[in-house]
Design brief:
The complex is a heterotrimer. Chain A has 2 domains: about 80 residues, Roll (Ubiquitin-like (UB roll)); about 70 residues, DNA polymerase, domain 1 (Orthogonal Bundle). Chain A is built from 5 helices and 5 strands. A 5-stranded mixed beta sheet of chain A has the order 2-1-5-3-4, sandwiched between helices. In chain B, helix 14 runs parallel beside helix 15 and helix 15 packs across helix 16. The termini of chain C are far apart. By secondary structure, chain C is an alpha+beta fold. The radius of gyration of chain C is 18 Å and the shape is globular. In chain C, about 35% of the residues lie in helices and about 25% in strands. Chains in contact: A-B, A-C, B-C. At the A-B interface, helix 2, helix 3, helix 4 and helix 5 of A face helix 1 and helix 17 of B.
Chain lengths: ~150, ~800, ~260
């Protein structure tokens, strides 16, 4: 066991964990932030995407120890001061979610995508969602929501 | 019913009430729940498709760090627990009931598929449980396995269950054999087609999970589980498995991350968790990982069929005969016997006036995971068969596919098919015309030649589908072998402050009931949407319900709410009459206000609600205090959503990649409460249909019985860049069998789309058939070996 | 995952010393392959040495006629690098197409080539660009580095420091993704430069990345898609599984080679 410390959603967070603890386990089990989900075990579904130092990563494919000292942002921390992020609003407005399970990872991926590529078109959005699997929506409304949010944020 | 449903709210794309918690990470899925002193379960699974368990030695594992207890099939048997059941009995054509092998919660002496449950390790952490499981010494005698569907009924093939010779669970038939043979005898043309309906693995994004708990003081068990129908789970676990009496077992299905059928069933894992919680005296939590989901969730589809269609010289259909072998897997899952029989054979008339139909279905066991309902369940298989053979008939007769369909559509209702179903309403040509218009069917030839100039192959394909939804009515399903009724319940509780809780037996796991159901209630009672709370998924709160599957929550679940609202309105009017000193007949209820006809007296909803609970001066013999009503609704018929989907593809002959350039879906769902949600349901259904047609395939090694597609590395899930934007349209005929006129929309996309896509792919390639999924490799191989269609004729 | 000790050295020297002391260590760079492997309990290292925090391994430098990339440089950094985009756009595009965005934020050049997954992209770039692999012990030519499926010339305790990619005159990478895993089912890197012409194929071969001499000779004579259009690889030695036969993959090598030459201009 060793102490891992990082900043999560703007607050210091630390816990004494085994070295094999994944970042997603640290977030869900140590911090009780259960908005970040685990949908697969081969690093493909993207339900676990969070931001580490401002970049989207799969928290199921990263040790908590690798995030030592990092700034981590999860879905729970996205709505600054209680105001929904434009991507969160767009997912609701455009019905970009059904069961909600893939949604936190989708939203965190979309926020990162818009940061990197503010000028988006449909093909780019579909391409960039390669690492996020949704079984409910057929992606139609997710793509619509991301495009709308990117317009909104320009 | 009294007081018609107002238009306000209904038909509006109201944004979902449930979204806030999901977009902010505040959903509560089963794995998000942590109990004080909880332990973790890990299941040791069979590495063999078929083996005898000679012995299990758990002694080393029991001494491993963190281990609390280890349970095997012996413990389960010694405790007198029953096995898992199939709730639907199918009778073979010789009159004998289906042949059911035992389905133990943990294997006793035989394992029957890779992933079968051998032992449950309960430990302080999941890592401890998993590590200890590796220390269990199981001495297996590996046996030959029955894996391939095409050979599993051979005499020499290994037997899955001694009870079922030739691995045949039932040999079922439906329709009129003699009339069908007569139809073929007089036919001018017979079209024949062999079809495979590929095995699918459901893959709801939330893996199954469970937490079992036992309260020693009260003797009450609680199970949190990823279920589409918690009440049925409770009934099965108490009445058949015998975990606990029904009143001592609470089942909660909190937020559930997608189901698509796979979470209807009662599985070994949750059963073992709740049972063992009393043994270890602590809560037991199990969360499956994706690999376990692949191995042990009930799979879908998996048929081999031979179909023949008889036509007269004008292209009029005379008869259809079908022989299908349907894979049931190693054990009968909760509803598995109904899927390839009553949910399949009954839909073989499609949208067509087919005077004679005869279908035979052999349900067979194999050493593979159980197969049960997956989005559409039986109806996609029926639609695929009908729409593929109709397309083939069009090509062989040279009649345009749309024209051949038009010539054979049913045009008068009600229409009794030769396979049980009585279609109540529809306008199939309206959907066809709208879909052809939307895809510019006339312009296809020009687009095809333009694509050819770029070296690409274009194809177009359509599918005129029908499904039977709103699964119910109880009398009908009972006569067909169902062990349960398929009604739905609702309870409307009006609080003294006027806001409302609606308790429903339907279960939402993505369908948006919290919004759609609230729209119905808000518009009927004239209260704001936010004043209506939909309560579901907890057997302690909702008395009973049948759950959500078979596109039934609107047509059946909401109809129950309508009935409860009728009673609420009737009682409220009685109270209003008393308070305003008028006759009940003179009370008018509109937009949340009660008035007395011909006077200026009025009473707001909130005033009446409070009065119902203060009850001052009520004539108590006549009016009880309170405002709460319940209803059980059992419809008189299935509902019959129908429509037309058309798909246009472009194939790159160099790589075999099929790109869907346009997908049009025109559906008739009857009344639509929330079009935004309904469109979302159609999108998701089409995506799963495209998955089946082009991408997804559950494959077992035919010799070893190992699951080859056991992760997303090999099982191809549809990604965003595999799919197009969808073009949707709606036509409307009102369903006459329920008060709202709703038909259901949850499965249409998955039912309708696969044949449209394969019709388009085979059109582009100029071949008769290609097996699903039409992967790039298969398309390329078809191109290498294909004789053009014209040459084959 | 099994238990292991975890170390996060700040310098290469510390990493080397930790590696020397451990019983059965594994180097963790971005972890995008190692962590899934550990999760599946397919590896049981005594120690995991995380080199992701070693700043001296995270750089991109354009010097003379080559770009030097530190072993711990992330795929996203490579794909977004103005230097790489300017001098070696094919390499930038390849890095920008590895896995998905989240994987590219973590995965590293060194991790990819040290693992030498037969379906990985970077080995094709290294072999296709005549890259030089610098380790803590020596310089290894790309031609000598990839020795078989998941096998490299690296010895115990040897750490990749950087890879030198000489500027090509023309280059492009075309990938046919496995529909399920999205790894390269067939990826072909073609280039023309001081080293002549190279055609490197990943994804298809049973022994990992390989060069196609016949295509290289044909392109050396005539740099055009037509030059390779009729060169078919024998199916022997090509992977075959439920996603495609060896014949299909061999065919895709030709198609991807043709398209890569066309894209390279």
């Amino acid at each position: 066991m060793s102490v891992v410390a990082m900043t999560v959603n703007g607050k210091p967070a630390s816990a004494d964990v085994e070295p094999r603890t994944l970042l997603v386990q640290f977030i869900r089990e140590q911090l009780g932030l259960t908005g970040t989900h685990v949908g697969c075990d081969t690093s493909q579904c993207g339900a676990c995407v969070v931001h580490v130092d401002g970049r989207a990563v799969k928290s199921c494919t990263m040790l908590a120890a690798q995030a030592e000292g990092a700034e981590v942002l999860t879905i729970e921390g996205l709505a600054a001061n209680g105001d929904l992020h434009p991507v969160q609003k767009a997912f609701r407005e455009h019905h970009g979610l059904q069961c909600g399970f893939c949604t936190p990872g989708m939203i965190m991926t979309a926020v990162d995508l818009i940061r990197r590529k503010p000028e988006l078109d449909e093909e780019t959005v579909r391409d960039e969602l390669e690492g996020n699997i949704c079984r409910c929506t057929g992606y139609h409304n997710i793509v619509k929501a991301i495009l709308a949010a990117s317009q909104e944020m320009r | 019913m009294s007081g018609a449903v107002t238009a306000e709210g209904i038909g509006q794309p109201v944004r979902r009430k449930e979204d806030f918690r999901f977009i902010t990470g505040n959903g509560h899925y089963t794995d998000d729940i942590a109990r004080a002193r909880q332990t973790w379960a890990y299941f040791l699974r069979s590495p063999h498709a078929h083996a005898r368990i000679k012995s299990i030695d758990t002694s080393v594992a029991e001494a491993a760090p963190g281990v609390v207890a280890i349970f095997t099939g012996r413990h389960v048997a010694d405790d007198g627990l029953g096995g898992l059941i199939c709730g639907w009995t199918v009778t073979s054509k010789d009159g004998t009931p289906m042949k059911v092998g035992p389905h133990p919660i943990l294997a006793l002496d035989t394992v029957r598929y890779v992933g079968d449950h051998v032992a449950m390790v309960v430990a302080e952490t999941l890592a401890d449980a998993r590590a200890a499981a590796e220390l269990i010494d199981v001495d297996y005698e590996a046996l030959p396995a029955a894996v391939a569907l095409s050979t599993c009924q051979d005499e020499k093939t290994a037997q899955v269950h001694a009870e079922a010779p030739r691995n045949t669970c039932f040999e079922w038939e439906l329709g009129n054999k003699a009339e069908t043979e007569a139809a073929f005898a007089k036919a001018d043309r017979v079209v024949k087609l062999d079809l495979t309906n590929n095995r699918l693995i459901p893959n709801a994004m939330e893996p199954r999970a469970a937490i079992g708990e036992y309260d020693k003081g009260s003797g009450i068990y609680t199970l949190h589980t990823t279920s589409q129908n918690p009440h049925v789970a409770r009934l099965v676990l108490s009445a058949f498995v015998g975990v606990a009496p029904e009143h001592k077992l609470r089942v909660v299905a909190p937020d559930v991350g997608g189901g698509f059928g796979s979470k209807i069933f009662i599985y070994a894992e949750e059963t073992a968790c709740v049972w063992a919680a009393a043994k270890v005296g602590r809560p037991i939590k199990w969360t499956g990982d994706r690999s376990e989901a692949f191995l042990s969730d009930a799979h879908g589809r998996d048929h081999l069929s031979h179909a023949e269609l008889a036509l007269d010289k004008d292209g009029k259909f005379l008869g259809l005969r079908v022989k299908t072998v349907a894979n049931l897997g190693a054990y009968l899952s909760t509803f598995s016997a109904s899927v390839p029989t009553y949910l399949y054979g009954t839909l073989l008339s499609g949208q067509y006036d087919l005077p004679a139909i005869y279908v035979e279905v052999d349900g067979v066991y194999t050493h593979t995971a159980p197969v049960d309902a997956y989005r559409g369940a039986g109806r996609p298989e029926a639609t695929y068969l009908v729409e593929r053979i109709v397309e083939t008939a069009a090509r062989e007769t040279g009649i345009d596919p749309a024209e051949l369909r038009r010539r054979n559509y049913i045009r008068t209702f009600p229409h009794q098919t030769p396979v049980i179903m009585n279609y109540d309403a529809g306008d199939y040509e309206a959907s066809l015309e709208a879909a052809m218009e939307a895809i510019d069917y006339k312009g296809f030839a020009a687009r095809k030649s333009e694509a050819a100039s770029r070296g690409k192959l274009r194809g177009i394909g359509m599918s005129s589908y029908i499904e039977a939804c709103g699964l119910a009515p109880s009398a009908a399903v009972g006569s067909l072998g169902a062990g349960v009724g398929l009604w739905e319940s609702a309870e409307v509780r009006v609080n003294p402050t006027g806001n409302i809780e609606v308790l429903t037996g339907s279960h939402s796991h993505g369908q948006g009931h919290e919004t759609t159901f609230a729209q119905l209630v808000a518009s009927r009672l004239g209260v704001p949407l936010d004043n209506v709370e939909i309560v579901h998924g907890d057997t302690d709160r909702v008395q009973f319900g049948m759950g959500t599957y078979g596109s039934r929550s609107g047509a059946v679940g909401m109809s129950a709410i309508v009935r409860a609202l009728d009673k609420i309105e009737a009682k409220a009017k009685k109270i209003a009459a008393h308070l305003m000193e008028a006759a009940v007949e003179d009370i008018v209820f509109e937009n949340g206000t009660f008035t007395v006809q011909g006077t200026d007296k009025s009473l707001a909803w909130a005033e009446l609600s409070l009065a119902a609970y203060t009850a001052h001066g009520f004539p108590s013999a006549d009016i009880e205090p309170g405002l709460k009503e319940g209803a059980f609704y059992d419809p008189t018929n299935f509902t019959f959503p129908a429509g037309c989907h058309i798909c246009e593809v472009e194939i790159d002959p160099d790589t075999g990649i099929t790109r869907i350039v346009k997908f049009v879906a025109v559906d008739d769902f009857g009344t639509v409460i929330n079009p935004m949600i309904v469109e979302g349901q159609v999108h998701g259904g089409i995506a799963q249909g495209i998955g089946q047609a082009l991408l997804e395939h559950g494959v077992y090694d035919p010799e070893s019985g190992q699951l080859v597609t056991g992760s997303y590395m090999d099982y191809c899930m549809p990604r965003a860049d595999d799919l197009p934007n969808f073009t949707l349209g709606f036509t409307k005929t009102v369903c006459p069998s329920n008060p709202l006129g709703m038909k259901g929309c949850g499965e249409a996309g998955a039912i309708a789309s696969p044949p449209a896509i394969i019709n388009a792919v085979t059109d582009a390639l100029g071949i008769r058939d290609i097996e699903m999924p039409a992967t790039p490799a298969r398309v390329w191989e078809a191109l290498q070996s294909a004789a053009p269609r014209a040459a084959a004729e | 995952m099994y238990q292991f000790n975890y170390e996060r050295p700040k310098t290469l020297a510390d990493a080397e010393s930790l590696l020397g002391k451990a019983d059965d260590p594994k180097i963790l760079a971005g972890g995008q392959t190692l962590i899934p492997t550990l999760k599946q309990r397919l590896a049981m290292p005594s120690d995991v040495i995380d080199i992701g925090g070693i700043k001296e391994l995270d750089f991109i430098r354009a010097e003379g006629d080559a770009v030097m990339i530190g072993a711990a440089t992330r795929h996203a950094t490579v794909s977004a690098s103005p230097d790489v985009q300017k001098h070696n756009p094919a390499l930038a595009a390849l890095a920008g197409g590895i896995g998905d965005p989240a994987v590219r934020h973590m995965g590293t050049l060194g991790g990819s080539i040290a693992n030498n997954d037969p379906a990985a992209d970077y080995p094709a770039a290294c072999l296709g660009l005549d890259a030089k692999i610098h380790t803590t012990k020596r310089l290894i030519e790309a031609d000598e580095f990839f020795t078989g499926m998941f096998e490299t010339a690296l010895q115990d305790g040897e750490i990749i420091k950087e890879v030198t990619f000489p500027h090509p005159e023309k280059a492009a990478y075309m990938k046919f993704r496995n529909p399920a895993s999205r790894y390269a089912m067939v990826g072909v890197f073609v280039s023309k430069g001081p080293w002549g012409v190279r055609v490197a194929v990943t994804g298809a071969g049973q022994n990992g990345v390989f060069r196609v001499a016949e295509m290289e000779e044909a392109l050396a004579k005539n740099w055009s898609p037509d030059a390779v259009a009729n060169i078919k690889l024998p199916a022997k030695g090509i992977n075959s599984d439920l996603h495609g036969s060896a014949e299909y993959r061999a065919h895709l090598v030709t198609v991807m080679a043709k398209r890569a030459v066309a894209a390279a201009g």
